[in-house]
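Design a sequence for this backbone.
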């Protein structure tokens, strides 16, 4: 990802602001997803072909994770180790989503579309956060 693309996506040329914005966007999307899973696991589980209890647990975990990511985003200078942890967790989530799809989930057509789509979104957050963090490290 080039610096120009990063600047365009983050709508700022300041790398520290880019990190915070990508963290904040991640927190909003993840939090919304988590709340939806936690509040409506039955209907969403039926729609996606995923067990409602699994969705409820994932929803609660995602909501807690989103709160942590939001906490990092709210800091003027998010700690590098914290941002790296978010990147690593996002990569792990994306990979495990695809593994679960291939290994044990039996989704509906909607679930078959949704799972790789959300995995790609989470991987995109990881990439944007990692590139922004690298730009911060290069800034004097």
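Sequence:
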């Amino acid at each position: 990802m080039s610096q120009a693309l990063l600047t365009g996506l983050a709508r700022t040329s300041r790398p520290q602001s880019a990190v915070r914005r990508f963290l904040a966007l991640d927190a909003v999307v993840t939090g919304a997803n988590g709340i939806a899973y936690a509040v409506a696991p039955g209907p969403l589980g039926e729609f996606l072909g995923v067990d409602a209890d699994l969705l409820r647990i994932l929803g609660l975990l995602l909501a807690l994770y989103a709160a942590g990511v939001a906490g990092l985003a709210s800091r003027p200078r998010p700690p590098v180790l914290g941002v790296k942890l978010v990147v690593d967790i996002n990569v792990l989530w994306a990979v495990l989503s695809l593994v679960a799809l291939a290994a044990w989930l039996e989704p509906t057509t909607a679930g078959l579309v949704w799972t790789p789509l959300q995995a790609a979104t989470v991987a995109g957050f990881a990439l944007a956060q990692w590139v922004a963090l690298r730009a911060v490290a290069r800034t004097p």
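The longest helix spans residues 109-138.
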